[in-house]
């Protein structure tokens, strides 16, 4: 039955548009818990206090779903080769071009969970898309859909890293996958390319409080002066450590209509971004993840690049 159930889930996930699926046994992440504790003690979470909350839930899936037996990791492609037409315009991360991925993927996950209950029976489970205390990259690594690279992003050996990660935690026994080898080798391109030195000299550790994505999305207060001139024109998020990663030569454009940008987004000039009004912000970023930083936050980021 385990094999049949696993096959059914993989088949339906593929039909829903998930590119890769990996399954790991639901158990406490002891080694990862120690690493997370050290990261928090070193204040690498910056002002992201929420990272300190629900510690046991983060490292133990049975605290999220009672009797959990399997953690399914699903990868959803967001890569696009489309770029902003003005090379001098402030930049935003590719993942934020289209509709907010939280809603797009959560909807698909709920459909998958509904399918599981229809086809397999009474299964207790929950869906997660970057919105709850789940160590998604650690689960992805355990389930063999990639390795965690020096830039701490999940890298698939045939597809790169431009993927959203999502999880289903179920009280259902399935056939489990195994971790794969780390293929970063001696490459240190991401470390050398990071303009704020957020990645540790040996890699595999990112100081969140130095990351451009943290500054432009998470930080609510004034941007620190010592980082002025080091953002390389990023106004929301940052893709530098993905852009330089050799494994992303395998990235292929997504086929998700919801991730297509607003018609005006890629055409806006540097001057238009500098003069951005709240009305244009609302129109261009309707239903977008960029709403998280709000109009005032994006204006703050743009001003920081400008001065």
What does this structure look like?
α1 (2-15) runs antiparallel to α4. The strands form three sheets. The chain has a four-stranded antiparallel beta sheet, sandwiched between helices. A two-stranded parallel ribbon has the order 3-8. The protein is globular. It starts with a helix and ends with a helix. The protein has helices spanning 2-15, 30-41, 55-59, 101-119, 136-142, 189-193, 212-218, 240-243, 270-274, 278-284, 294-306, and strands spanning 20-25, 70-77, 91-92, 125-128, 147-148, 154-155, 163-170, 234-236. It is an alpha+beta fold. It folds into two domains: 2-80 and 98-170, NADH Oxidase; 189-306, no CATH class. Belongs to the QueG family. Cob(II)alamin binds at residues 58, 130, 151, 154, 165, 213, 238-239.
Name a few traits of the molecule.
single chain; 307 residues; alpha+beta; NADH Oxidase; 4-stranded antiparallel beta sheet; two-stranded parallel sheet; 11 helices; 32% helix; globular; tRNA processing; 4 iron, 4 sulfur cluster binding; 4Fe4S_Fe-S-bd
Quick structural overview:
With 307 residues, this protein is of the alpha+beta class. It is 32% helix and 11% strand.
Compile the SSE list and pairings.
Layout (H helix, E strand, L loop, with lengths): L1 H14 L4 E6 L4 H12 L13 H5 L10 E8 L13 E2 L8 H19 L5 E4 L7 H7 L4 E2 L5 E2 L7 E8 L18 H5 L18 H7 L15 E3 L3 H4 L26 H5 L3 H7 L9 H13 L1
Parallel strand pairs: 3-8
Antiparallel strand pairs: 1-2, 2-7, 4-7, 5-6
SSE topology string: HEHHEEHEHEEEHHEHHHH
Q: Tell me the CATH architecture of the largest domain.
A: 3-Layer(aba) Sandwich
Main pleated-sheet profile:
4 strands, antiparallel
Count of helical regions: 11
| Domain tally | 2
Give the class from helix and strand content and strand pairing: alpha+beta
Helix content: 25-40%
Number of strands: 8
Radius of gyration: 20 Å
């Amino acid at each position: 039955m385990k094999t049949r159930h696993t096959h059914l889930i993989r088949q339906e996930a593929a039909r829903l548009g998930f590119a890769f699926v990996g399954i790991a046994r639901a158990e406490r992440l002891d080694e990862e818990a120690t690493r997370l504790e050290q990261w928090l003690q070193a204040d690498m979470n910056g002002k992201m206090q929420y990272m300190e909350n629900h510690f046991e839930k983060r490292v133990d899936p049975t605290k999220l779903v009672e009797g959990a037996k399997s953690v399914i990791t699903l990868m959803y492609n967001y890569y696009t080769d489309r770029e902003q037409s003005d090379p001098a315009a402030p930049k935003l991360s590719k993942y934020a071009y289209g509709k907010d991925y939280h809603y797009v993927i959560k909807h698909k996950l709920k459909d998958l969970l509904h399918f599981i209950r229809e086809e397999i029976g009474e299964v207790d489970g929950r869906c997660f898309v970057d919105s709850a205390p789940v160590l998604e990259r650690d689960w992805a690594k355990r389930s063999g859909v990639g390795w965690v690279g020096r830039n701490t992003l999940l890298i698939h050996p045939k597809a790169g890293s431009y993927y959203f990660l999502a999880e289903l935690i179920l009280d259902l026994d399935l056939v489990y996958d195994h971790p794969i080898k780390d293929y970063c080798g001696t490459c240190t391109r991401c470390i050398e390319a990071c303009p704020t030195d957020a990645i540790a000299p040996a890699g595999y550790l990112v100081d969140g409080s130095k990351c451009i994505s943290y500054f432009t999305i998470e930080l609510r207060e004034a941007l620190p002066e010592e980082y002025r001139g080091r953002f390389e024109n990023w106004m929301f998020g940052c893709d530098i450590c993905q852009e330089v990663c050799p494994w992303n030569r395998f990235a292929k454009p997504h086929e998700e209509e919801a991730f297509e940008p607003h018609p005006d987004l890629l055409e806006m000039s540097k001057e238009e971004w500098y003069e951005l009004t709240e009305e244009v912000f609302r129109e261009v970023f309707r239903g977008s993840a960029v709403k998280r930083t709000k109009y005032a936050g994006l204006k703050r980021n743009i001003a920081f690049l400008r001065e």
